[in-house]
Write a structure and sequence with these properties.
Distance between the termini of chain A: 37 Å
Largest sheet of chain A: 5 strands, mixed
Helix content of chain B: under 10%
Structural class of chain B: mainly beta
Strand content of chain B: over 45%
Order of helices and strands of chain B: HEEEEEEEEEHEEEEEEEEEE
Distance between the termini of chain B: 31 Å
Structural class of chain A: alpha/beta
Number of helices of chain B: 2
Order of helices and strands of chain A: HEHEHHEHEE
Oligomer: heterodimer
Largest sheet of chain B: 16 strands, antiparallel, barrel
Number of helices of chain A: 5
Largest interface: A-B, 31 and 44 residues
Number of strands of chain A: 5
């Protein structure tokens, strides 16, 4: 029984560690300089463009996932509820639309590889060898 | 026989649900179920939007007046062009649907967007989101400061978005006209209020017969403005200017005669500053409608996990100058003070429970009769609400 509990605790610990780091990725051909502020601006719809003027299209992961919650809290400084309220103000007033939501790291990576205008985030453990990591949270 | 409004709703929903490419269509919605009861005093009138909610001792626990359901459909024809329609059904209108927004939107570039159609007037910090109760912490926007009749317009707008380092900006330029026929806000104001600065509440003929006002219409032939917001970290600064010219109020009395009050031009200014770091929230907003009023409110609040508590003080000072240039004496001007305690609890995804207590003090009330004759309306009102988006 004790062993099971310890094993369970270790598994829980590693699952927390696994989602504690979020990496932001862009297409390898995207040479824009991005930092925490500009990433927040893009994901909150405050700008539609990268620094070189090209279109910036953020993609989100499902909001009920630990990774999405972590990104929202660390990068956007909001809770999931606060972010939902924030976007409800913009989308019903014609000022912006929330990022498209996709399922999982592999889909984010695939989309980013296919489109130089996309910017997304994945877990640190994801295979990011084919994309460019621009920031960590 | 299907009413015109229902036809409008049916046509809108059919258009929105029969896109050539279903992937380009999205339907979303919002709503609020609001229950309010007067705890003490003569009464309380929630001015906006559209004069929703007039609560007296006889009202009991009223659950229909401020409740609403909104549906928004968006058809995206390309990456740059879309059409959006927003239909709202309000309890105060017996749930008759009205099209509150209907516009075509086109992205001219990554920084410029143009819209044509019926849109919300973005003069206040929360004016275009007044019906989206889920988007803010209060149960309703502060009544002392959100009391402009022209909350939407038919016309064009251009939105500019850009960033300069850590500062980002969103600016909207707009031009259009307003024809609210009838204007539910002004009709309620003039019929129930005895607010005789623009119209009398009735007309008396040469034989002494009294014909009460039955309807008020408001038209503005030229309305233009600019609304800009700057964002820096947790801070938002909002500045807005609006001018209307050719502003006419048209009163219709029960004998069919009309009275027209004309204003050549009127200016509106709004300044707001807000701070929201995800733990603390502070908002201050001041505005002036030249020749009508000045108002402000200050809100302080705190997030505690899924809870949010807010305390708000609001003030309204009438500065009414009639169309003929007559300035009402100060003792006849409307003065309001409100203290509001608000609670929000996000208990599940997309839905929030809210409770709000308003302590309201009013001299020269617009609507509520001074039944005890002390020259003031002192009332307290308690409301609960479930706000949702989907």
């Amino acid at each position: 029984m004790k062993t099971v509990l310890i094993t369970g605790s270790i598994a829980l610990f590693y699952s927390i560690v696994a989602v504690a780091d979020v990496v932001v990725i862009v297409n390898p051909n995207n040479n824009n300089t991005l930092n925490k502020t500009s990433i927040s601006q893009i994901f909150l719809g405050k700008t539609n463009a990268f620094s070189d003027g090209s279109q910036a299209i953020p993609i989100n992961q499902k909001e009920d996932t630990p990774l999405s919650k972590e990104f929202t809290r660390k990068a956007l400084k909001k809770s999931t509820n606060q972010l939902r309220a924030y976007w409800s103000k913009l989308m019903f007033t014609g000022k912006g639309t929330p990022p498209k939501v996709v399922q999982g790291d592999s889909e984010v990576i695939k989309l980013v590889l296919d489109n130089p205008n996309l910017i997304g985030y994945v877990s640190k453990s994801a295979d990011t060898s084919n994309v460019k990591v621009v920031e960590k949270f | 026989m299907i009413s015109t409004n229902k036809k409008v709703l049916i046509v809108s929903l059919v258009i929105l649900s029969t896109s050539v490419n279903a992937a380009d269509t999205s339907v979303s919605g919002f709503g609020s179920i609001v229950g309010t009861s007067l705890i003490s005093g003569e009464g309380y009138w929630v001015e906006h939007p559209s004069g929703a909610g007039y609560y007296t001792e006889d009202s009991g626990f009223e659950i229909e007046e401020e409740s609403l359901l909104g549906l928004q459909g968006r058809v995206k024809f390309s990456d740059k062009t879309s059409i959006t329609a927003q239909v709202i059904m309000r309890g105060q209108d017996d749930w008759q649907p009205t099209i509150d927004q209907l516009y075509i939107s086109h992205d001219l570039s990554n920084t410029w967007n143009a819209k044509l159609g019926k849109m919300r007037n973005p003069v206040y910090l929360f004016s275009d989101a007044m019906d989206i109760h889920y988007s803010f912490g209060w149960l309703r926007t502060p009544g002392t400061s959100y009391s402009l009749s022209a909350i939407d317009f038919d016309g064009v707008s251009a939105m500019y978005k850009d960033v300069w380092g850590a500062i980002s900006n969103r600016t909207i330029f707009y031009y259009g006209k307003v024809d609210k026929n009838p204007d539910p806000f002004l009709t309620e104001l003039f019929i129930n209020g005895g607010f005789n600065t623009a119209f009398t509440t009735g007309e008396v003929d040469s034989e002494g017969n009294f014909f009460p006002l039955v309807e008020a219409r408001n038209t503005i032939s030229d309305l233009f403005g600019v609304s800009t917001e700057f964002y820096l970290g947790d801070w938002t600064a909002h500045f807005a200017f609006m001018e209307d010219s050719g502003d006419e109020g048209i009163a219709t009395y029960s004998n069919g005669s009309t009275f027209v009050e004309k204003f050549t031009w009127r200016d509106f200014y709004d300044v707001a500053l807000s701070y929201d770091d995800g733990e603390w929230i502070a908002i201050a907003e001041w505005n002036q409608f030249k020749g009508v009023y000045k108002s402000y409110y200050v809100t302080l609040g705190k997030y505690i996990d899924d809870w949010q508590v807010l305390l708000t003080y609001g003030n309204f000072q009438g500065e009414v100058i009639t169309g003929s240039g007559f300035t009402l004496p100060d003792e006849d001007q409307v003065k309001l003070d409100t203290v509001t305690a608000s609670l929000r609890y996000d208990f599940t995804a997309g839905m929030a429970f809210k409770a709000e207590l308003i302590l309201f003090s009013n001299e020269n009330s617009l609507i509520v009769p001074d039944t005890d004759g002390d020259g003031e309306i002192d009332s307290s009102v308690f409301s609960i609400a479930f706000d949702f988006v989907f």
